[in-house]
Amino acid sequence: MTTTRCAWAKSTLAIDYHDREWGVPVHDDRMLFELLILEGAQAGLSWDTILAKRTRYREVYDGFDVAAVAGYGENKIAELMVDAGIVRNRLKIEASVLNARAAIKLVQERGSLDAHFWSQVGGRPIVTRRAAMSEVPARTPLSDAVSVDLKKRGFKFVGTTICYAFMQAAGLVDDHLASCFCARRDEERERPL
């Protein structure tokens, strides 16, 4: 029996990620920060590239501990720039540090990343059930608004397309196709808030 899943999940890494994580609601601040940083790192690259580097990112980014990343200085940035296990783009690396600092301020204001991001969708995932990947947008008015908000708060590499991909990854938006087994699975289980 063939499992039907969203068409973008083709490689072994992508299939595992799709089946276990993509579109599943995330309420852990550390994981939300990780997804935001990885989506920014992915800009201009394939998601498979990021998935292949994810373990190394977790190692060199102190498990995506926001306070640790916020404290990175020029020496740590230089160290990251020569690590072939991650995307060695100075702007993206520097943005991750700025984003950690902005995330700390956001948490001070809103209580948590979880509270902030989930308030954008009324506390519940936006569930779509489109027929084809060609119907899934790269951005929406909501991702436009999230992008503008984050940029005002000092975040970098958070354009609307990156924000929409982040929202999908974190389960704020569930874009599994109607034909995907995950859509049926998600409808059958209770989704935690």
Fold and architecture overview:
The protein is built from 10 helices and 2 strands; from the N terminus they run H-H-H-H-H-H-H-E-H-H-E-H. The protein has 193 residues and is mainly alpha-helical. It has a single domain, classed as Endonuclease III, domain 1 (Orthogonal Bundle), CATH 1.10.340. It has a two-stranded parallel sheet with strand order 1-2. Helix 8 (141-152) crosses helix 9 (160-169).
Brief characterization of the structure:
This protein is mostly helical and 193 residues long.
Question: What does the secondary structure layout of this molecule look like, with pairings?
Answer:
Layout: H1 12-20, H2 29-42, H3 47-60, H4 66-70, H5 74-81, H6 90-110, H7 113-119, E1 126-127, H8 141-152, H9 160-169, E2 173-174, H10 181-188
Parallel strand pairs: 1-2
Looking at the overall shape, the CATH architecture is Orthogonal Bundle
What is the tally of beta strands? Answer: 2
Q: Which descriptor suits the 3D outline? A: globular
CATH topology: Endonuclease III, domain 1
Strand order of the largest sheet: 1-2
Number of helices: 10
Terminal-residue CA separation:
33 Å
- How many distinct domains? 1
Please give the share of residues in helix.
55-70%
- List the helices and strands in order: HHHHHHHEHHEH
Strand content: under 5%
Which structural class matches the secondary elements? Answer: mainly alpha
Highest-level CATH class: Mainly Alpha
Largest sheet: 2 strands, parallel
CATH superfamily: Hypothetical protein, domain 2
> What would the average pLDDT be, to the nearest integer?
94
Radius of gyration: 16 Å
Point out poorly predicted stretches. 189-193
